């Protein structure tokens, strides 16, 4: 059975749509993968230069406690 007869009169449109979708999905996966590698290299470079995340540091002082604010009586 020929694919054109199997897919009907819109076979070219259907095959083209699947091909374009496949190319776009592969391009997005490749882009995310390459960007992840780039970000990992940038992070390693920052860590090699001694730059650290602020959240990784232990707090040096106790956090300030807040006192509740009283609303003025109306």
Automatic annotation (TrEMBL):
Pfam families found in the cross-reference section? CcmD (PF04995)
What residue spans carry the region label Disordered?
Answer: 51-74
**Where would you say this protein principally sits, based on its record?**
membrane
> Does the UniProt entry include the keyword Flavoprotein?
no
Purpose: Required for the export of heme to the periplasm for the biogenesis of c-type cytochromes.
Compartments reported by the entry: Cell inner membrane
Q: Is Endoplasmic reticulum one of the keywords UniProt gives this record?
A: no
Recite the lineage of the species: Bacteria, Pseudomonadati, Pseudomonadota, Alphaproteobacteria, Hyphomicrobiales
Name the UniProt key words of this record, in alphabetical order. Cell inner membrane, Cell membrane, Cytochrome c-type biogenesis, Membrane, Transmembrane, Transmembrane helix, Transport
- The organism's superkingdom is given as Bacteria
| Topology versus the membrane | Single-pass membrane protein
Member of which family?
Answer: Belongs to the CcmD/CycX/HelD family.
Annotated TM spans? 12-34
Spell out the protein name for this chain: Heme exporter protein D
Q: Which InterPro entries match?
A: Haem_export_protD_CcmD (IPR007078)
Low complexity bias: start-end ranges:
57-68
């Amino acid at each position: 059975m020929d694919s054109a007869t199997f897919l009907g009169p819109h076979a070219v449109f259907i095959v083209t749509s699947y091909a374009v979708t496949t190319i776009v999905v592969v391009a997005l996966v490749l882009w995310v993968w390459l960007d992840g590698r780039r970000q990992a290299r940038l992070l390693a470079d920052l860590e090699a230069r001694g730059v650290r995340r602020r959240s990784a540091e232990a707090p040096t002082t106790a956090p300030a406690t807040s006192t509740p604010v009283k609303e003025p009586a109306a």
